[in-house]
Amino acid sequence: MPQKGGFAKNVKRAAGIGCQALQIFVGNPTGWAPPRLSEEELRRRGEQVKEEGINPLLVHAAYLINLAAVNEEVFQKSVRLLQETALRASHLQASYVVMHIGSHGGRGFKEGMDVFIKTLDHILKDWPPRVCLLLENTAGAGTSLGGTFISIGTILKALGNGVPLGVCLDTAHAWGAGYDWTTDEGFEKALAELDAHVDLKNIQAIHANDANSPRGSHRDRHAHIGEGLIGGEGFRRILSHPWPRELPVILETPEMGSHWDAVNLGRLQFFAGMTSDLPDPSLPDPATSRGK
Ligand SMILES: [Zn+2]
After folding, report:
1. Are 113 and 147 in contact (CB under 8 A)?
2. What distances in angstroms separate CA 14 from CA 143, 183, 185, one per listed residue?
3. What ranges do the domains of the chain cover?
4. pLDDT of 43-71, one tens digit each?
């Protein structure tokens, strides 16, 4: 959900097009300093989300956070901002914080993973109850960690079962990392790898994004559902899997206002078999024309 135009207005807009789950940033996604917000204001916002019938709420951590950063200042700021994000998520009564796995910044994959795990272990010792941290797979660009399901599995195994930790599967990032959603064989291979290393029951959210960058390019350009290289049939495959009913599926498609948000949402519902009409973006307003 975008922040522009005020929190309450955007929550109403999301509910108006039929969103059942919502993901927000608590500050500028590309900045270190989130705006000052009192605990009371955060609680009020959390209530607004619930009042609109939306549950769960997910908080996406800022992109700058890197728990494996080589630069000491960036490292310290990352730890502090993640802790602040978790605290705010708890005041918002959010169920999840979603975080990208960082980058080893040249120190090598093995050492980067070790630092990431050690740092996260330390942070999780003082983590708010009732908030689960979800590690999001990346497109695996450059020195980034978390582009393979095996690397995410390594983190989960190292930290054990007693921690509030899960995984958010981003369909476009997985595509960029080389996983193929466009064929039955590719899908089954990706899912088997996910289950073997991560365990499907640890998947607690999906970021449903189509991709504009080629498979395996390690680039990350999101597209509207069905308009990119994953395509509608890719989403039908992904969403036809018997995921738990309450699994939140979040759109991070290009921000183009309610019209496209409603089209993307309607398309997810169509490919998940929840509705029989595929929204056409050339129609004036798919949200109201479908009576939702
Ligand atoms: Zn994502």
Report:
1. no
2. 36, 32, 35
3. 60-289
4. 999 999 999 999 999 999 999 999 999 99
Q: Torsions phi, psi of 249, nearest 5?
A: -115, 120
CA of 141 to the centre of ligand 1 (A): 14
CA of 159 to the centre of ligand 1 (A): 22
C-alpha–C-alpha distance, residues 234 and 181, integer Å: 5
Spacing, Cα 207 to ligand 1 middle (Å): 5
pTM of the model: 0.94
At residue 22, the pLDDT reads: 97
Given CATH 1.25.40.10, say whether it is the number of domain 60-289: no
CA of 209 to the centre of ligand 1 (A): 8
- Per-residue pLDDT of 167-208, as tens digits, reads 999 999 999 999 999 999 999 999 999 999 999 999 999 999
CA of 139 relative to ligand 1 center, distance in Å: 10
**In 10 A of CB 108, how many CB atoms?**
11
AA identity, residue 34: P
Span from the CA of 170 to the centroid of ligand 1 (angstroms): 5
Distance 115 CA to ligand 1 centre (A): 23
Q: Which is nearest to 155 in space by CA: 192, 200, 199, 120?
A: 120
Phi–psi pair at 223, nearest 5 degrees: -130, 165
Q: Which two tokens stand for residue 156?
A: 């989960």
